Amino acid sequence: MEYVKLKEIASIVTGGTPSTSKKEYWENGTIPWLQSGCCQNCNVISSSSFITQEGYDNSVTKLMPKDTILIALTGATAGKVGYLTFEACGNQSITGITLNKDNLPKFLFYYLLYLRPKILRDCVGGAQPHISQGYVKEIDYPSLSKNKQQEIVSILDTINNIIDADKKQLELLDEAVKSRFIEMFGEPNSNPKNYPIMKIDELFDVGSSKRVFESEWTDSGVPFYRTREIVKLSQDGFVNNELFITEEMFEKYKDKYGVPKADDMMVTGVGTLGVCYIVKESDRFYFKDGNTLWFKNKGLCDVRFIKDQYDTDFVKEQINRNANASTVGTYTITNAKNTLVLVPPIEEQHQYIEFVKLIDKSKFNIQQHLNLMQELLDKKMDEYFGG
Q1: 41's torsion region: left (phi>0), alpha (psi -120 to 50) or beta?
Q2: Structural domains counted in the chain
Q3: What is the pTM of this model?
């Protein structure tokens, strides 16, 4: 396959941010202004921020046309892409790629989606890994006819549309659970049914793990989880783990300090805060101290009921209010112990959980289908772009 540099076939621009201290640059703005979080490997269909014409004129940001492909340059979203469906500008963490008329934007979208693992490997910087506009300009791009690009896009779109439909079904089921929670218990912030409010440390023993040094990580053995693995487990129910500790270390720590067991709850404490994973009977793992908190179940509540409260504004606001925002956000053991939750009678908790279990069964089947479709999409992209 022959390649050209992206800079040879596209206009490539990076955005900027008007001064946030000048109200006239932001108040009553009408020009959509995007941040890198909009790049989630899908269509970008709206903007939550707008700037004025004066703000635009006094900034280095550039207006990007509809059908521009966006790529995030930095942080957790580095290398993620978005398909811009309206005219907008963006901040300095977004580069926009507008192709010439001989190339299809959607083909570039899928190609960059395929390239993301490589892009992540190429990121530079420690605490804030990133790529640059210069890097994007030098990306090698397959030189294919427009008809061939369209043929590939049609196949990938068909698969991706099925994936999007599955994701939408999962979102609707999640909304059904949230609605059921409010229907039964009311908004936790107002607590209209006057349920008891308790601190987490009244329901769980809250702690973390013993230190495992990076030099002690191995390529096989017992899975060793960080924040990213707990988030993946919470979202998908499985994780392709990269890090391990030895069987000997696991057994030693298990005997001396204990390890997570069924119906304990793991809660992320660094970066992505308050994401929960309920330990299964079949789980066998250890985890990074400080990154993840260990809620040891005292058997006084239904752990799933508490997990679902961590998705409410009531708990999220407590976590964000107490997070250390001067560096990377943290949810400490002390803050976790003092987090407040509603505690209805256990019979009502169980009634709610019975409904949740039915939803979970439906979600499991949809997730299995989604996983198969994602595997097919990855296989097809590798077939088209890997040669």
Answers
A1: left
A2: 3
A3: 0.78
Domain assignment present for residue 191? The answer is no
Q: What is the pLDDT of residue 310?
A: 96
351 to each of 38, 172, 184, 190, 342, how far by Cα in Å? 38, 21, 9, 22, 15
Per-position DSSP letters for 181-198, written without gaps between them: HHHHH--TTT-TT---EE
Q: Read off the pLDDT band of 171 (50, 70, 90).
A: very high
Q: Which amino acid is at 239?
A: V
**Distance between CA atoms of 193 and 210, rounded to whole angstroms?**
41
> 326 exposed, middle or buried (CB, 10 Å; 0-12, 13-18, 19+)?
exposed
Digit-coded pLDDT (tens) for 312-334? 999 999 998 877 654 557 899 99
Report the pLDDT averaged over residues 170-191. Answer: 95
Quick one: 78 and 169 in the same domain? no
| Angle at the Cα of 177 from the Cα atoms of 175 and 178, rounded to 5 degrees | 65
Q: How far is the CA of 6 from the CAs of 68, 81, 96, 98, 220, in angstroms?
A: 13, 15, 12, 10, 40
Helix (H) or strand (E) holding 89: strand 89-90
Across the range 295-309, mean pLDDT stands at: 95
On whether both 247 and 311 belong to a single domain, the answer is yes
Question: Domain check: are 135 and 18 in the same one?
Answer: yes
Q: DSSP labels for 43-64?
A: EE---SEEE-HHHHHTSS---B
Q: Please give the residue range of the domain that contains residue 372.
A: 151-185+347-387
Tens-place pLDDT, residues 248-283: 999 999 999 999 999 999 999 988 899 999 999 999
Round to whole Å and give the CA distance between 101 and 193.
61
